[in-house]
Amino acid sequence: MKISEIDPARLQALNSGITETTHLSECLAVDFSALVHAVFPEIANTESATIKTMPSQGISRRMSVMGDLLARHFGEDDLVALRLHRSDTVRGWACFALATTSADDLDAVLEASRPFADDAHFGVREWAWLAARPLVTRDIEASIGRLRPWTADPSERIRRFASEVTRPRGVWCAHIRALKEEPQHGLPVLEPMRADPARYVQDSVGNWLNDAVKSRPDWVRSLCTRWAAEASGPETARIIKRATRSLKPIVE
Question: For the chain, which domains are there?
Fold first, then answer.
């Protein structure tokens, strides 16, 4: 569905913060200015100059700006409480606000991200890893070490977060140069999920490796050959198929 095709009454409900979006077009259609006026009128009045500049910015930048504004006006407890807000966009703002509040503490950012990474809404889960990614990329080896236990979490959403937040190229975010050049540093996160039973996780691991194909195709080919020999189940086969979709076939 195109943004222009969204029913006006539906859009008004989204901009009032009383309901969630149901697909990407609705996520992109939310008017941040209208929403902040409806949900946080005191911030809208105090930060009007900043809010007026947002329509000209991309969605990721607008989320970051709103995170900064919320962090400026609310304490950590209030931000954590926003995980229960009816609007997925507001919950996304909280992801960025909490990442700002704990910007120099990797463990704190990851802990704050966890409930949002496990949110029932697809959009909030994306905002969770996007908000945490800048800090994760500062010391990628340390971050991967912290995320290793997440790969064994009972929730497939938490397991997927560990993969998505460390993708070498990712979507709507800066690339991680260290992992583009040396993707083997991501193995502590990837190896435990090479036969993950959830398609949600399989897709993410496959996409991670497909990112790596762009700069290290030989490494990905070698890894997938090993995985195919060591874990021959359908889960691994699906990951390998997704991981190697951009690889050119070897000409004998």
Answer: 1-138 (no CATH), 139-252 (1.25.40.290)
